Amino acid sequence: MISAYTVAGVLRAESVALQRxxxxxxxxxxxxxxxxxxxxxxxxxxxxxxxxLLLVGGGNNGGDALVAGTILRRRGVAVTAFxxxxxxxxxxxLAQFLKAGGRVVVGMENTSVATLFGRADVIIDGLVGIGAxxxxxxxxxxxxxxxxxxxxxxxxVDIPSGVHxxxxxxxxxxxxxxxxxxxxxxxxxxxxxxxxxxxxxVGMDVSAEAVDACSLTEIPGLLGDPGTRADKYSDGVxxxxxxxxxxxxxxxxxxxxxxRLRPGMVxxxxxxxxxxxxxxxxxxxxxxxxxxxxxxxxVVGPGMGTDQDALDRLTVVIDKPEPVLVDADxxxxxxxxxxxxxxxxLRGRTTVLTPHEGEFARLFPDLDLSDRxxxxxxxxxxxxxxxxxxxxxxxxxxxxxxxxxxTGCGWLASAGTxxxxxxxxxxxxxxxxxxxxxAAAGVFLHGLAGERLHAAGLAGASQLWDHLR
Length: 469
Ligand SMILES: NC(=O)C1=CN([C@@H]2O[C@H](COP(=O)(O)OP(=O)(O)OC[C@H]3O[C@@H](n4cnc5c(N)ncnc54)[C@H](OP(=O)(O)O)[C@@H]3O)[C@@H](O)[C@H]2O)[C@@H](O)CC1
Ligand SMILES: Nc1ncnc2c1ncn2[C@@H]1O[C@H](COP(=O)(O)OP(=O)(O)O)[C@@H](O)[C@H]1O
Ligand SMILES: [K+]
Description:
- Helix 15 (417-429) packs across helix 16.
- The longest helix has 21 residues, at 435-455.
- The protein is elongated.
- It folds into 2 domains: 7-209, Rossmann fold (3-Layer(aba) Sandwich); 219-467, 3-Layer(aba) Sandwich (UDP-N-acetylmuramoyl-L-alanine:D-glutamate ligase), CATH 3.40.1190.20.
- Strand 9 (266-269), helix 9 (273-279) and strand 10 form a beta-alpha-beta unit.
- By secondary structure, it is α/β, with parallel strands linked by helices.
- It has a 9-stranded mixed beta sheet with strand order 10-9-8-11-12-13-14-15-16, sandwiched between helices. A 7-stranded parallel beta sheet has the order 3-2-1-4-5-6-7, with helices on both faces.
- The protein has 17 helices and 16 strands.
- Potassium ion is lined by residues 61, 125-129, 156-159, 161.
């Protein structure tokens, strides 16, 4: 987990750094880091002769792009700067760029615009940085759209233009960065962005400005040695209520994650009891929730279907006093029968909801998903639950504290990985860990497992089990 900073915090640190080093030094350091990222993105190309396109706005962000272009030019890259507004441009940076042999293009009516974008190997987005508020104005938005349509390697300067630096909201078009090189400190809005993130300190000290130092130091405690006096119940029992004849795999994936992560005792209740035991002989399985025995946490929903039988099972689990994690079909049922959640709220019971964006939209149709941080926080406050909004940057919030996870990789975007995640979090909930800790740690471990799986040259949800610990 990484600490993040608001724009206000970064600006406070920046004013100290500006007094110490002066604007030219800071901009050069920022630009140097951007140029390095661009060169790394060009690694498959011969550097001299490759083409870079700069999208240059009127502020310091545009200045950074021009200085980065100057550095690339000196390395033999053919660099063209597209000025969004020729009347407003960082004059000193432009002068350096022209002196180094950079080319300048102005105006969309230029017939070679399509060619210019189409031939670029790397595009550097210096339209706006933290001095601007989205949405982008039409001229800048048009440039971003052209850039996004290309296959060039895309480098954002400080923040992808069009993304709100504090919230991550992108109310219009935003630059689809492969990498964002951000200065001084990671802006809170960047945590929820896909793409790689590079932090260039540039001489700013932001240490006094941290917003959320999201560290998962709890993990060793959660997964620690059970101890010599342990019995199979002492670490907490999780019961998984999942699967159906249509989706038997969900039950096996969810139980498997729990068995592999914390094997003390894992129960299963549902129609796939025989299949579950065939895969996981250590699981204690039964056909009905009422027959499941005592558990310290419940996971309900993966692949259970949305028919009357599933609703009946969900209703029994919802009534349990122990922490309940609701996922997948369980969430769809809750969106149709909202009173189920209200009954837990009224009794002050712990609930964890793990929607992907589609499920989230069903549950909270009025919350704007272009601002995922605020949407998750609001959903948590409203539902009195820990909400885990899954995606490339999963967000975890109880309304008061919010974590953003950056472990994981695109290979996790495959069917069944969500079922594994609910087994992981359910298993951690059974330890008695605070639900926000269990959820954040579970998401972190699940992401790490995805990375390890990929590094081992493997893929697929049922392989994640082996990489959880
Ligand atoms: N200070 C330092 O030492 C260092 C600062 N650094 C860099 O400075 C950046 C901040 O620079 P900044 O403050 O100049 O603002 P910036 O983000 O370029 O935006 C202003 C421009 O955007 C325009 N614009 C505004 N809204 C818009 C919209 N909706 N849609 C479209 N355009 C819009 C606005 O136009 P205007 O509104 O004035 O007409 C103006 O042209 C920071 O992110 C980092 O990259 C680094 O070099 C490290 C050292
Ligand atoms: N691009 C991505 N990068 C990292 N993690 C991802 C990405 N896409 C999806 N994930 C993760 O994969 C899991 C998918 O869960 P979900 O959508 O519920 O799938 P399923 O229901 O098929 O199991 C979530 O944990 C999500 O955060
Ligand atoms: K930018």
